């Protein structure tokens, strides 16, 4: 197929070692393979991602993950048109592991390389999955990110607001730990919340009384800590109902804040083609449902990509790389690995820097 373009995408910026092959042909983009090797098990005893463990695991596994992505795609290396790799933002050891693997391959194969911003990968995913038209709003909510991005084009992004402390996934993980639930915390809290009464405990809705689109989750986590201490039995355990009510109250408060701020952003930004959500927290059924309702109320298109493409993956990096490749971008092999790399250089620096490293 002479006019097909094939891109290998590599992602290692946090705790997923990922590679994917994307092909554009006859105007359509097809994910030929998408391999994600999660490090969840390696980090679960430490209460967060340990950068040194993550970097070593990426370095050990990246070759195998790339090989599997190529095999699954039925593609040989010479059949690639370019290699796209996350060059930041993220944990520096991980970003280095991926970018060194990509540089080695590009050099050996004599293929072009594209240094991709991880956040651009997330931000462009609603186009890959649903062809959402520019401009749109992206709410990116994960264990490492929390921001509102107005996506104008494949090169132009405006960060409208974000967390001033923790990311919401991080807060879910901490609350799960406080309540003696498993990790990752989001799914565990969501499960416990199913039998809970969200109104039982009074919890704050941080930052809703302030103008703008910034968010905060650390006060909410502290409020849960205090309530949890008052419910805890002498042996440290919880009555099932208390735990369920705390989980439900927390989940409701997070969803209230995210939905209200999203509504505010949408109210202030007419003429958007739609809005989308991405990141691990986008898996939360209550949040997804309420954002769907909000979109219906505002008569706007809403895109929630399948979870495998909401969380970190190589396909989103390959897609951002494909768009750059078609614009004629080609990068030199000496591009740096960047722990911080704001998508919107004009926006004020982010204050939040949680367990998964500094946020861009
Ligand atoms: O995007 P992701 O896989 O990794 C990064 O953080 O980059 O997101 C993982 C985060 C974890 O903090 C996890 O607890 C949260 O997403 N999460 C959820 C749910 N599933 C995963 N949070 C709330 N509800 C869920 N169902
Ligand atoms: Zn991410």
Give a description of the structure.
With 360 residues, the protein is α/β, with parallel strands linked by helices. It is 42% helix and 19% strand. It contains eleven helices and twelve strands. The two termini are 39 Å apart.
Low-confidence parts lasting 5 or more residues at pLDDT below 50?
A: none
Distance between the termini: 39 Å
Oligomer: single chain
Q: What shape does the CA trace take?
A: globular
**Relative helix content:** 40-55%
Catalogue the ligands: 5'-O-[(R)-(carboxyoxy)(hydroxy)phosphoryl]adenosine, zinc ion
> What fraction of the residues are assigned to beta strands by DSSP?
15-25%
List SSEs in N-to-C order.
EEEHHEHEHEEEHHHHEHEHHEE
Spatial sequence of strands, sheet with the most strands: 3-2-1-4-5
Strand count: 12
Topology:
Layout: E1 5-11, E2 16-25, E3 28-38, H1 40-43, H2 51-73, E4 82-88, H3 92-109, E5 113-117, H4 118-130, E6 136-141, E7 146-151, E8 157-162, H5 168-178, H6 185-193, H7 218-231, H8 240-268, E9 274-278, H9 285-298, E10 301-303, H10 307-310, H11 314-326, E11 353-354, E12 357-358
Parallel strand pairs: 1-4, 4-5, 6-9, 9-10
Antiparallel strand pairs: 1-2, 2-3, 6-7, 7-8, 11-12
The site of 5'-O-[(R)-(carboxyoxy)(hydroxy)phosphoryl]adenosine has 21 residues, from helix 5 and helix 6.
């Amino acid at each position: 197929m002479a006019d097909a373009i094939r891109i290998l995408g590599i992602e290692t910026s946090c705790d997923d070692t990922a590679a994917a092959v994307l092909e554009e042909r006859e105007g359509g983009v097809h994910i030929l393979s998408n391999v994600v090797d999660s490090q969840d098990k390696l980090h679960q005893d430490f209460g967060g991602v340990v950068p040194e463990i993550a970097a070593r695991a990426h370095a050990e596994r990246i070759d195998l993950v790339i090989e599997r992505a190529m095999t699954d795609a039925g593609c040989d290396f010479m059949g690639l048109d370019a290699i796209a790799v996350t060059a930041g933002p993220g944990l520096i050891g991980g970003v280095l592991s991926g970018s060194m693997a990509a540089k080695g391959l590009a050099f050996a194969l004599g293929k072009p390389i594209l240094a991709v911003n991880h956040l651009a990968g997330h931000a462009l995913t609603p186009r890959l999955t649903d062809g959402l038209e520019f401009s749109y709003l992206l709410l990116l909510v994960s264990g490492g990110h929390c921001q509102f991005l107005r996506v104008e084009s494949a090169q132009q992004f405006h960060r409208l607001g974000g967390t001033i402390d923790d990311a919401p996934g991080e807060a879910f993980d901490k609350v799960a730990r406080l309540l003696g639930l498993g990790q990752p915390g989001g799914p565990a809290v969501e499960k416990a919340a199913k039998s809970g009464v969200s109104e039982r405990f009074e919890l704050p809705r941080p930052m809703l009384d302030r103008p703008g689109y910034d968010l905060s989750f650390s006060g909410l986590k502290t409020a849960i800590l205090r309530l949890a201490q008052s419910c805890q039995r002498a042996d440290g355990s919880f009555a099932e109902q208390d735990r369920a009510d705390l989980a439900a109250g927390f989940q409701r408060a997070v969803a209230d804040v995210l939905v209200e701020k999203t509504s505010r952003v949408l109210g202030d930004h007419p003429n958007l083609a739609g809005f989308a959500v991405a990141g691990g927290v986008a898996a939360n059924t209550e949040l997804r449902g309420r954002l769907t309702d909000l979109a219906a109320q505002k008569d706007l298109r809403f895109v929630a990509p399948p979870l495998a493409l909401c969380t970190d993956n190589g396909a989103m990096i390959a897609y951002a790389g494909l768009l750059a490749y078609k614009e004629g971008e080609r990068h030199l092999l000496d591009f740096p690995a960047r722990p911080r790399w704001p998508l919107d250089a004009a926006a004020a620096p982010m204050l939040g820097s949680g367990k998964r490293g500094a946020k861009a």
